[in-house]
Amino acid sequence: MTPHPLQCAPMGDTQQTAVIVGGGPAGLTAALELIRHTNVRPIVIEAGDAVGGISRTIDCGGYRIDLGGHRFFSKSDWVMNWWQEILPLDRESRPADEPISVGYRNRHRTVPAAAASGAGTRGDLVMLVRHRLSRIYFRRKFFDYPVKLNLRTIANLGAWRFAKAAASYAWATFFPRHPERSLEDFLINRFGVELYRTFFKSYTEKVWGVSCDRISAEWGAQRIKGLSLVAAVRHALSRAAPRSTLPSRRTRTSLVEHFLYPKLGPGQLWEEVARQVRAGGGEIRLSQRIERMRLAGNRVARVDVRDVMTGALGSMPADYVISSMAVQDLVACLDPVPPAEVRRVASELPYRDFITVGLLVTRMKSRSWTGTGSDAAFPPDNWIYIQEPDVRAGRLQIFNNWSPAMVADPALIALGVEYFCNRDDELWSLSDAKLEALAIRELQQIDLIDGNNVVKAAVVRVPRAYPAYFGAYAEFGVIRAHVDTIENLFLVGRNGMHRYNNQDHSMLTAKAAIDNIASGRTDKQNIWDINVDDEYHEEREPASA
């Protein structure tokens, strides 16, 4: 696949500039799309010392950490092809005689793996095709995710618990909760109360810090729309037919079995995008933070930028502003200040913060990795949902299974133990040493490792990783009504829109913003529409050619 040539816009006093707030997937997509399709020069302002946002990769010396685990899969042709233009498929990641789908645009045409990529000379700058497996760990046993009605599930649950699950599922089928006001309603209607309590309640409440009956059902529609026990069973039956390509457009997000993954982690792709942005005449300023957006009428005229390292304050004009910064911070930096009600709602928007404790271990405890037929030294999962209520850990990443290149020594196992909290929690304020000790102790407690086998540990904290769907979120329309009146301000991405977007949805919002700039469109409805009725979550046939 031939990348777009980078188009360097003419330099001069009349060239327009777009200030892009945030160097994550949304911001960097916007920057590269501006270079490719407009004469507007992007200037990316990133408060951190690296690009990628939550999709960056942390090098811990001997192993790499992916913050949250990022599967590169999308129902969008545009996104799938965009990724492969940046990092082409690696022919070595699949057997040479096995065909690989090279893009949904040509989904009925496959090519041999040996011909699918010319990336051999690009070394590590490639996408791997990976098998996806994630399971639930409950009662010290592994359960399929999505939940499946099979003999292994029945054996793990026990006859009595399974009978209760079947009865509660039947009840939910015939007597569903209406209306669906909360995430609890949403999940019980699809799985029954017993399976909800067994497989969803503990993990979800670890992530959000509140009970599921306080979380909006919109979160379920956003993240797991269409997933149900019936859908999982139907999908399991469909797997009887052999498949050797990437998933079709009809596959639900939670059921995807293969995905793309940069060889050195997701940050590798965004670092390459940043390089192309700079090569195309754009600018990326790290360790700088937007402190104020100065409005003239219904447009942003200038932005004030603070250097995080030196404290120096500067100002620059802006023809356009594309913001992926937290909505709470955006509202706080507008000048003149928004109405009191807008400021109140913004200040009360809820977020959840995220901690990963990376552990490098020589081995995991010897046990059967149930249902995989694997005799490997560690589970074959990409991640494991820890549903055990007696530990605070929420999820376990196994980075070797994302890409072998994530671990320098193939004899070692790189784990990421994930915790969810608020910045005023006791957990967030623990020292790195205490967090490392907590992670080791909890993995020992649930019988997955022996602490004596830990070689190295590291802690990474991510503030505002997850915009939350409760509390003041119900009043978000107050904020949107105000910011949408600012003609040259475009909100994109996860934190920029206070939506729990996937990576590809963040990119699509950025693309829509650039399309608006290129066409002179000032209303933002098309940006907000992404991931509301988007076919990403829908089971529908693609339009015929």
How would you describe what is shown here?
The chain is of the alpha/beta class and 545 residues long. It has three domains: 17-51 and 269-349 and 470-536, FAD/NAD(P)-binding domain; 143-237, no CATH class; 351-467, Protoporphyrinogen oxidase, mitochondrial, domain 2 (Polyamine Oxidase, Chain A, domain 2, Alpha-Beta Complex). 31% of the residues lie in helices and 22% in strands. The protein has 18 helices and 22 strands. It has helices at 25-37, 77-86, 151-157, 159-174, 183-191, 193-199, 201-208, 217-223, 229-238, 266-279, 327-333, 340-347, 426-429, 432-445, 476-483, 494-497, 503-519, 525-528; strands at 17-21, 41-45, 57-59, 64-66, 99-101, 110-112, 127-131, 134-138, 141-144, 258-262, 283-285, 288-296, 299-307, 313-317, 320-323, 334-335, 351-361, 383-386, 395-398, 413-421, 454-467, 489-491. Strands 9-8-18-19-20-17-21 form a seven-stranded mixed sheet. A five-stranded parallel sheet has the order 11-2-1-15-22, covered by helices on one side. Strands 14-13-12-16 form a four-stranded mixed sheet. Helix 5 packs across helix 6 (193-199). The chain is globular.
